[in-house]
Amino acid sequence: MHRQRFFTLSASCPDRVGIVAKVSGFIAEHKGWILETSLHAEPPQDGEGVGRYFMRIEIKADSLPFHLAEFRERFRPLAEELEMDWKITDSAVKKRVVVLVSKQEHCLYDLLARWQSKELDIEIACVISNHDTFRGFVEWHGIPFHHVPVSADNKASAYAEVQRIFEEVRGDTMVLARYMQILSPALCAAYPGRIINIHHSFLPSFVGAKPYHQAWAKGVKLIGATCHYVTADLDQGPIIEQDVIRIDHSDAVEDMVRYGKDIEKTVLARGLRYHLEDRVLVHGNKTIVFR
After folding, report:
1. 108-145, pLDDT tens digit by residue?
2. Are the beta carbons of 148 and 163 closer than 8 angstroms?
3. 150-169: per-residue pLDDT in tens?
4. pLDDT of residue 208
5. Element (H, E) at 37
6. Which of 52, 71, 145, 239 falls 20 to 30 Å from 283 in CA-CA distance?
7. Annotated catalytic, 235?
8. Are residues 69 and 100 in the same domain?
9. Is the pLDDT of residue 1 over 80?
10. At residue 272, does pLDDT exceed 90?
């Protein structure tokens, strides 16, 4: 991927003739230099008269005679004409990520390693946990750590505190890095398409707790991991990324857990990257991922 500063326009709208011509024409009219374009048309779903069109366009930032605020103002009439859901972001502005974790360390360690090496060029605003286990490790990296205990008696207040912290640190994305609690419906509803989870199975198989035990009991030959957006329905949100590894009859549950940790780390990192680079567009309970 190129390293120069660019703006990313991501959008979807009802399908029709001339969408690409109108959008690219608007960019060309203002001397915009298109660096990368991804396009996809989805057929109509049940009850829809037309399908939906999806696009992601990277524009060289210094080719435009104005910045994002003016781009948004000038582009708005065309977006309204096309009935478009859209946003435009600046590659120079780092996304602020808040990580939630419980007692499993592998995904947290992996994300911090990728952040420290700048493989993930983000700001980790803070880490929130329902246990105090990783405070020293996180603070050693210079990242604020918040211990928010969660019990059957305090879930509403605990998740209100999580939301307060997320707003206070101006978080863009919340990442559940093996956070072993079910978020409240209110918290899920507050940030649609902004909360990402890593589930340790190849969804929709083995939803909920102990998926490796479930997989072992079923005698499956493949296990996997799924990165998905969080909704109020447990492990049912739109899927961003998945991967699998082959196993056989000789593998115990402990072996599957060990194999799975490697998949979970890579799937979460890939899914998070796609999201942060505005490569994921949600369509109902599905996603369009421009990799």
Report:
1. 999 999 999 999 999 999 999 999 999 999 999 999 99
2. no
3. 998 999 999 999 999 999 99
4. 85
5. strand 34-42
6. 71
7. yes
8. no
9. no
10. yes
Q: Which residue has the tokens 């997320």?
A: 166
Question: Which amino acid, residue 193?
Answer: G
Cβ-contact 100, 129 below 8 angstroms? yes
Helices vs. strands in the chain: H and E counts, helices first: 8, 13
Are 102 and 73 members of one domain? no
CB 249 within 8 A of CB 225: no
Angle at 174 between CA 193 and CA 192, to 5 degrees: 20
1 within some domain: no
The number of domains in the chain is 2
| Structure tokens that stand for 28 in this block | 């060309």
| Three-state SS at 76 | helix
Catalytic residue among 110, 172, 235, 278: 235
> pTM of the prediction?
0.95
Say if 242 falls within a structural domain. yes
For residue 55, what are the contacts with CB-CB under 8 A and spacing of at least 6? 9, 10, 11, 12, 19, 20, 23, 37, 38, 39, 40
Q: Any idea how long the chain is?
A: 291
Average pLDDT of span 169-188: 96
